[in-house]
């Protein structure tokens, strides 16, 4: 949200430059930080370099053909019976 005071508003190109600098500094910090800063076998980074914890994958995602099984299960379920209209 822009500040209602026009004297305090920054042009858009300055907002973009600030964000780019912040993201660049964050990635540089992660590149050159000590290796034991974050356990890379326990965290994953999103697109903005925020570390997120890794979770164990549910067993049904570990199967190679889990999508095909889900489609086959959905296809085998009969559709709900159509309601009969009173005549």
Task: Give the key terms.
87 residues; mainly alpha; two-stranded antiparallel ribbon; 3 helices; 2 strands; 41% helix; 7% strand
Question: Would you kindly provide a written description of the structure presented here, covering whatever features stand out?
Answer:
- With 87 residues, this protein is mainly alpha-helical.
- It has one domain.
- It is 41% helix and 7% strand.
- The chain has 3 helices and 2 strands, in the order αββαα.
Topology:
Elements: H1 12-32, E1 43-45, E2 51-53, H2 59-62, H3 66-76
Give the helix/strand class.
mainly alpha
- Across the major sheet, the strand order is 1-2
- Which value, in Å, is the CA radius of gyration? 26 Å
Largest sheet: 2 strands, antiparallel
Which series of helices and strands comes N to C?
A: HEEHH
**Strand tally:** 2
Mean pLDDT: 75
The percent of residues in helical segments reads 40-55%
- Low confidence ranges: none
Q: Judging from the principal axes of the Cα atoms, what is the shape?
A: flat
Counting H and I runs of at least 4 residues, what is the number of helices?
Answer: 3
Query: How many domains in all?
Result: 1
How much β-strand is present in the residues? 5-15%
Distance between the termini: 58 Å
